[in-house]
Each structure stands twice: as C-alpha cells, then as structure tokens.
Amino acid sequence: MFRLLMYIGLAFLVPGLAAVGFAVYEGPVSWGVDAVTFWGVPVSLFVFWIGLAHAGTLLSAIFLALNVSMDRRTALLAELSTLVCLIIAAIYPLIHLGVIGNFYMVAPLLDARGNFANVRSPLVWDFCCIAVYGLLSLLFFVLHLIGGAKSNMLDGIVKIRRSMAWLLFPLVLWVHTIVSLDFATTFVPEWRGAFFPAYFIAGAIFSGLAMVNLLLCVENYRVRLLEKLMLVGSWVLCALWLWNFLLKGDFCVSAFVFAGVLPQFLLVENVRESRILRSMVCFSILLGMLLERIFLVAPTPQVSALAGISDSSRWVDWGLIAFGVGCFIHLFFAVRRWLSKPIENDEILMGDVDEVKESEESASERNARAKYFPPLTTPEYRVLRLPVLFGILVSLLFCIWTVSSNADSNIQVSLISVVPVFFPIVVLVASVILCAKPLWYVFESRARWCFVGVCVLLAGLFGAFYAGGSSMPAASESRETRAEHAEDMNSYARTIMIWNSRCSACHGVDGKFNEKFIREFYPVPQKLTQQRLDSLGLDSLVKVVLKGRVNMNPYGDRLSEDDARALVRYMRSIAPIDSVVIEDSLATDSIPVEVVP
Amino acid sequence: MTPLIHALACLLVLGLASFLWRGKITLLKESLLILAFFLLSVLFTILAGDLRDPNMELYPFRMLALCLCFSATTLHSKRRRYLVLAQVFWLWVELFGSLALFYRGFDVPWLRLVAIGGIAFGSSFLSRINREMEFCLMVFWIAVWTFF
After folding, report:
1. Where are the domains of chain A?
2. Using one digit for the tens of pLDDT, what is the confidence trace for A454-475?
3. Residues of chain B positioned with their CB less than 8 A from the CB of A243
4. CB A113 within 8 A of CB A469
5. For A491-588, which CATH superfamily applies?
6. For residue A567, which of A513, A506, A491, A516 has the smallest C-alpha distance?
7. What is the DSSP string of A266-318?
8. To the nearest 10°, the Cα dihedral for A80, A81, A87, A88?
9. Over the stretch A170-215, which tens digit does the pLDDT of each residue have?
10. pTM of the predicted model, to two decimals?
11. Does A247 sit within 8 Å of B57, measured CB to CB?
C-alpha cells in the first residue's frame, strides 16, 4: 500500500519537478502573477503547506501539554506530516523570490555583512519563526521516537517532551500568526484585516486536521476526537468567512462549498463510519482550503493580465501544485515505511511513556506539590520557568540591539516591528537549555565530547553563515535565463524578455516597482522615477546593471553592454507611468513607510 | 463607538460568559456556544460600530476573548491554567491586531497590552484562585476593557 502511494507520489513529483525547474530558470514571469498583489501560486502554496504543517506538532503538543491522551501512532504520523509539509513549504518562497540566492538576505543578521536586513519585513519574521519551528518540531519528533525505546538511560530526555510541548504549543500559533501578517501588514485592500491571525490559524488547524485524518484513513485508523475537531473547525471557518464578507464583501464560493458545506456530512453516521467517505470529506476540505488560499493571494480576476502571460504558460502553476502533492506523498510514505516499527507500536499512549512509572510519578508529583518550596526553587521553576526567563532575557537583548543598531536610514525600526521575532528566540534559547542537561547524561563520556564537537561545529557553521556571504549574492550562482541566450530574437522583444525574467521580481513586470516585494524584502530602495533616471544618466545606470550596487545583482557576466543599455532605455520608457501610480496609492493608503527621494 | 456602547459590550460579554462551561462539558456543545457568542458579537459590532473603522475588524474577537476570560473563572478544575490561556488569547488578539493596524498608520495601545500581559503573567503565579481573587481579576479586566 505504502509503496503504491510512493509511486503515485512519484507520478505527481516528476512533472512537478519540471515545473519547479522551469520556474527557477525563467523567474516570476513563468507563473501567473496577480496584477495588484504581485503574488502568485508559489505564495498560495506556501501558505497552504505551512498551514498543513501546523496541525501535527500543534495537536501533539497541545494534547500533551493539556494531558489529553492520544495514541502514539496518530501523534507520530501527525508530527511526521508536519516535518514533511515544512520541507515542501520552505521550497515555495525560494521559487517566489525569483533569484534564489537572495534568500540569504532575509536572515535577520542585521548589518553583519554590511547590508541591513529589513526587520520590519514579515519575510524576515517568517524566516526566523519557521526556522525555529522546524528545528524544534524535528527535535520533538525525534524525542517521541526515542521514547518508544523505553530505555532507562533515555528517561531524562523523554521527560522534557512535556515541557517542550508547553513551548511548542504557543510557538505553532505564533508562527502562523506571523504568516498571516505577510498579508495583514500590506496595503492591498483585500488583505485589510487585523483579525487575519485568527483567520489564518483557524484555516491552518482546520486543513491540518483534514490532512491528519486523511493520513489516518490511509492507515485504516480512526480517532473520533480529531473528526469532531474537524467538524468544529469547519464551523469556525464559516464564521470567519462571514465576518470577512461583512467587512470587505469578499467570498470564495468554491472554498465555502468544499470546506464549509461538505464537511457537515460528518454529522451523518454512515459517512463517519465509512473509510472512503471520510477520506472524501477530508480531501474535499483540503481542496477547499487550497482554493481559499489561491483566492486570498490573488484576489483580482485579471490575474497575470498585466504581465501579458498567455494561458498556455499557466502549466507551471499546475506543475507547482503537482510538485507539492507529489513531494508530500512520496516523502511522507517513504519515511513512514522506514519507521514502520516505532510508529506501529500501538501500546504506548502519548504522554504516558511508561504508564506504571507515570502513575508513580504522579503520586510523587502530588507529594511534591504538598511540600513547601522556598521561592524560585520549585521543580516547575527549575525545569520550565528558568529556561524561559533566560530566553526572555536573550530575546530582550536582541530586540534592544536591533532597534538601537538601526544602521540603515531607509528603515524606521520600531519596537512593535521586532515583537514577531521575540517569542521564537525565547523558545529557541529555552529549548536549548531544556535539552542540554538530559542530552549530556544520555551520552557516554567519549560520546559527550563528540556531542560537544558537533555543537561547536554547528556554532561554527552559524558563524560562517553570519559573517560570510556578499551583499551581491547572485553574482556567480544564479543561472542564465533563456532570454539571455536568445540571440535570434529582435532586440526589443529580447529586452522585454530579459526584463520580465530578471528585473521584474523587484522592479515589477510593468516597471511599476514591485513595491510590495521590495518593501518587505529589502530596505526600501530609491524610487526609479523618470527624473531620477535622467539625473543619473545612461552610462551610470548601465554600470549599475553590469556591476551591481547594494542589493542590485551584477549582470556583467551574462549581459552585454548593449543589452544593459537596452534595459535602461526600456526602464526609462515605463518610468513616468510608474511614479504617478505609486504616489497616488501611497497618498490614499497613508502607509507609514518612507520612500527615500 | 461611544464609550457607553463600549461598556455595554463588556456587560453583554459578562452575561454571555455565564452560559459557558455549565453542566457536562462536551466539545460540540461548548464549540457551538462559543460560535453563537461570536456571531452575537459580530451582530453587536455591526449594529453599534462603524465597519469602515479598521479598529472594528478586531472588535468581535476582543469580545470573545473577554468572554473566555470571564467564563474561565467558573471552571471547577484547572482554573489557573485556563485563566492564563484565556488571557494569553486576549493578549494575542490585541497584540497582533495592533501590529497589523500599526502598519496602516494606527498607534499601538501599549498600555492595554502591558496591562493584559502583566495580569496574565501575574496570574500564572497564583497558587489558588478563590472568589475574592476572581472578583479582583474581573474588576481588572473590566477596567482594562473600559479605560485602556
């Protein structure tokens, strides 16, 4: 069964890989881009998959933290699905960026490489939160697997799972809140929503529950509580859609039918009892949520009309969807097969690693509660509160450093802009402290030094990542585009093609400045109005195109001087329209962002 | 929204909260009740507020959060845990709502955030929550809702 599913996954994955390759090769011009939001299918898929990635660890952590018993198989499958979904979700932002090497810029390393990361940007927050979430989810999953070994030596490390659950439970909610801010902090009217955090989290948990239930159907397994939660999730989401509709008049009918109406069949006993019908309801929810994400990201009907993209090129969008589906099915069931033994060990309830020992511990815990502890010495304080307090201290220091070392005058960093990275840092530091002691005792003396060596190596790698790299990341790494090789095209068509495949990621397909992308990704750059272009002069701009400048990548090794001149002329030809539209939109939206003249 | 209507919302929430967690607690029953309260909050916001005001986007969620805080005091067991969770939910709604509104030119209500955060943090240290303490907490929440 699992092998068959792996082949099915492969059948989706292979064409999907072709689409991914083409999308990376061609850049943002290859997929449908919304004319208003400048976003397309890669971002929709990122939101969809990161949403799916939330249910696993969330369910596992929340149930463990609140002492709700859940069988080990369900919990492990859910946690595994989180990890696989995270891997897939991480790929789409890379595609979306157009130039993959630029991803390095979203790491919040401030001015360590002479290039201040835009800490105001939700993309920087995303990177920070998702990186910490991925790391800790992996650790949580590994600890769960180790728990099955029932070795006395590992007892110490397994016990910290409950403390970790208390850290992960809010972290999961925090991460998807931050993803929702990618939308809520922008100027797009359709994304106007201070309530987006609740909306996104409800959607993420709902779709994640559907995914976990679908996986359980494949296993021929059933957890009634998860089905009830899925039903409740559909009600919550319907209420949120209603509120969204009342506020903005936006409503995605197909999403409502698939994810709002069809799940109500779970109220019918025959549907609940049938494995196939249950699977179909879960699939319907996943489809509905995918449609909802696509609707959310690209709200205007004239998607890609501005970009001049013909319908035939939309195969890339389908390919990107197929890539996600195929990659998940193949990877998940491959790992599932590999971990059959620990996952199918149904005896152990999650949170009750050893039930006898657990009940003894509960008795001892009850005794401990009755005992008087001087202030700051309770077991709870030592195990959880102290690491958290230390994490808060480190995080506070980071925030103060960030706000005070405002190296770039283009960014006005305020305290509230740093808040989103505050909690992930707290959790990361607290988890490291939490795990350090049990890990130390798990290893034998020689292995301890190996462990220390690995830690030093990791720290070294982090240091290299921190200090290394150039502010011109794509100088040698980025591949040449089809346009740059197209000698036989007439020069004007070739210039437009190069523009679309290379320059449009930042400057916009129509030269209107992909302001949304730029503002969120980089420090706000200078405005390329006609006046400014004239004042700089043709030769100076050609030099910038060929040799690069600050965040602008150098293209001297791929473009001739004539190509660069043609690009500058093309840019100038579309500049006047640009300046009027942007100024209008800034004036009407009253966005507190400074554009340097 | 006038201060009087705003205070009325608090009263409405207080009334609704008394219906939660009564009798045997089941997932579907409590979820339906919470959803019904949310829809009532939506209705209240539509009737009493101006939906063009971006601050109103958050209003039903704030009402729901306050409702959960009030209702958590009626729980028979694990009251401290759920009180803290309800207050953290309120803080989360306020914090990230403010963050989204900040990017649209609104000021961050630091005082409200600090007050909710402070009481949530403080109440996590309470060893037992008796009736007097419940009353104090409820007065504090009403004060935060009405004045901050």
Report:
1. 491-588
2. 888 888 877 766 555 544 444 4
3. 42, 60
4. yes
5. Cytochrome c-like domain (1.10.760.10)
6. A491
7. GGSHHHHH-HHHHHHHHHHHHHHHHHHHHHHH--STTTTTTTT--GGGGHHHH
8. 160
9. 888 888 888 888 888 776 777 777 888 889 999 988 998 999 899 8
10. 0.77
11. yes
